[in-house]
Amino acid sequence: MRESNGYAFSLRVPSLRIQRGEKIALIGESGCGKSTLLDMLAFILRPTDMEDFSFHAEAGIDVDIGESWKKRRRNRLAALRKAHLGYVMQTGGLLPYLSVYDNINLSRRMLGMPDDGTVRTLARELGLSRHLHKLPSALSTGERQRVAIGRALAHRPAIVIADEPTASVDPFAAEKIMSLFISMVEEMNITVIVASHAWRHIKQLGLRRLAHHTRKSSDGRMTETVVSG
Fold it and tell me: Which residues belong to any copy of the ABC transporter domain (predicted)?
């Protein structure tokens, strides 16, 4: 529950189970709680109340996220995000003072992973090889989004979360980028959760749409979204 200037927003998730390798879509207009849910799934935003919230990254890694929040183990949650999650923001979120190569390599560098050619392979698949030594400011919007996708995939996380990753590019470029993105996560068997407005193209790519509905109180001061899947 969030309140601001006399208005309140509530997001409820009665039941949600996402299997390894699934492709999930959260479709809806701005203000329906898509980004809020993604931030909760990325262990960034703490739910007000929770009964069961667990994360199974791989064999031997099964974490009670709810317990970690309740015991304020933020360092534990940050470590899980760094090792097992990739996040693609609407605007890319690239560091402007790092080259394309260093932006893509950032997650690997933070984890102490070796320079084994992964970054250059991703750059080639994303059509970025000739831009590796450029700064983000020298790229088009679509190219910056492809760099952000490369950064999210570089350390081969268990899950990649993408918050409207093609919202800032034209529809033709958006379809090309999204198709490339989904084909890459499929090849790596990475779970992907995408928030988007564009259900038509997302459906064509085989993503499972989460059920949700949003309702407002009669005076318009309370908005509640319920998500399940």
Answer: 1-225
Question: Are the CB atoms for 123 and 111 separated by under 8 Å?
Answer: no
Higher pLDDT, 169 or 82: 82
Give the contacts of 26 (CB within 8 A, at least 6 positions apart): 34, 37, 38, 193, 194, 195, 196, 209, 210, 212, 227
* Residues 10, 209: Cα–Cα separation, whole Å: 21
Please tell me the distance from the alpha carbon of residue 98 to that of residue 136, in angstroms, as a whole number: 8
Asked whether 84 and 157 are in contact (CB, 8 A), the reply is yes
Q: Which residues contact 47 (CB under 8 A, 6 or more apart)?
A: 40, 53, 66, 69
The dotted CATH code for 2-228 is 3.40.50.300
Quick one: which of 52, 47, 42 has its CA closest to 10?
47
Establish how many alpha carbons lie within 13 A of residue 91's alpha carbon, considering only the half-sphere containing its beta carbon.
5
Query: What is the value of pTM for the model shown?
Result: 0.87
- According to DSSP, the β-strands at 85-88 and 159-163 are parallel
d(CA 191, CA 181): 12
pLDDT digits (tens, 9 = 90+) for 162-205: 998 888 788 888 888 889 999 999 999 999 999 987 777 788 88
Other beta carbons less than 10 A from residue 65's beta carbon: 21
